Amino acid sequence: MIGQKTICAIDLGSSHIVAALAKVSKKGKFDYLHVEEIASKGINNGVVSDIASLSDSIQQIVQSFKNKTKFKIGDVIVNVNGNNVSCRYSQATIPLLERGSKLISENDVKKVKHQARILGLDLEEELLHEFVRSYSIDNYGEVKNPVGLYGRKISVDLYMIISKSSYTDNIVEALSQAGLEVRNLVFSGLASSLSVLTEHELQSGCFLINMGAATTEILFFKNGTLKHVEILKIGGNNITECIASKLKISWELAEELKRSYVSAILEEIRTDEEVLVKKTATYRPIKRKLIAESCKETIDEMIELIREKIDKSSFKDQAESGIIITGGASHLAGLLELVESKVGLSTRLGKVKNVSSAVHKNPKFATVIGLISYYIDNSLLNKHPIQKGKNIIESLVNQARYIYQEYF
Question: Which residues span the domain enclosing 337?
Fold first, then answer.
């Protein structure tokens, strides 16, 4: 259709690679054409271990898209998972004038934010996202928008989401070898928030828990802005590994049992309930409760870590909308009820919003569909950055005014 653009998003997970293809109109409306997933190769516990294998996996899923949809795929938007993410605050102050005061311009704001980035980043790090916590002018008060105000100096307090440059370089290289160009790299938890959180939850205050295979990401939102992030080095794979180890079965079988038969609340399982498990060429019955008991300690550890992080944060009392859990491990039976009872906040499952297909509402697709939403939001914002309702004469006048303010 004329005026539509095809977008491809890829969620590089430690257990699965999920990709989504969508058509997007000029107004930002989109319809999903296809979502696929395959087992991950070349990426283990969030770390790229084999670029060639990872590139082959990406190429395989992209080729499947081409065969089924006949759409050409060029650039893609890709996630960066929690294992490769760190978050920190950074502050900076720059002088505007030695004496008197100056009308603060957009360029002044850019300068002080740039200074905060320099102070907050190491050489081997790359900035993924930044969120302004506050501005202040002449050390006075919290200012929402300093442009157009007078002052002698301006300060900014930034919250930054950062990735290791080596990881992002490896991701870009793997996609390049697959014939794709990376348009954006986006933190997984942030992408998931775009697809599952409502405007009310974002404004009133909520914790989003994005449960992946290798990590669990905890994000807090308030007044429509990301305020804080915590990364736990534990995820769905840890549960699977416990089942495989204690029951002495393959990882693949343990993963299947986890999805179908594990419950976070042992009391919900009947003592006489049995499951047929295939070992070598034969099947043997095993108590379902034994399967759940094999990973109960790991599940409890995960929930306790979540509780500790939320309790130690300064945001628990501000979470009017409670906890929203999403990601591949979020469907674990009894998980929502146990988190709610242990943490003491209302808890719901974060299903993907604004999609018509019931399949695409599955929380395991939250990140990949959120990536497309991120692409839409940012491409529309940056499409015509110098216009914003102003004609060329107005733009030149504003530039002349800025030059005058800067130098006279």
Answer: 225-349
Backbone φ/ψ region at 105: left (φ over 0), alpha (ψ -120 to 50), beta: beta
What is the rounded CA–CA span in Å between residue 211 and residue 241?
A: 16
Longest dimension (CA), the chain: 87
Domain count, the chain: 1
Q: What is the pLDDT of residues 216-252, one digit of tens each?
A: 999 999 999 999 999 999 999 999 999 999 999 999 9
Q: Evaluate whether residue 295 is within a structural domain.
A: yes
Tens digit of pLDDT for each residue in 64-103?
Answer: 888 888 887 878 999 999 888 999 999 999 999 877 889 9
Strand segments, DSSP code E, in 4-84 are: 5-12, 16-24, 30-39, 43-44, 47-48, 75-80
What gap in Å lies between CA 62 and CA 281, rounded to an integer? 35
Burial class (CB in 10 A: 0-12, 13-18, 19+), 154: buried
User: What pTM was computed for the model?
Assistant: 0.87
Cα–Cα distance, 50 to 238 (Å, whole number): 22
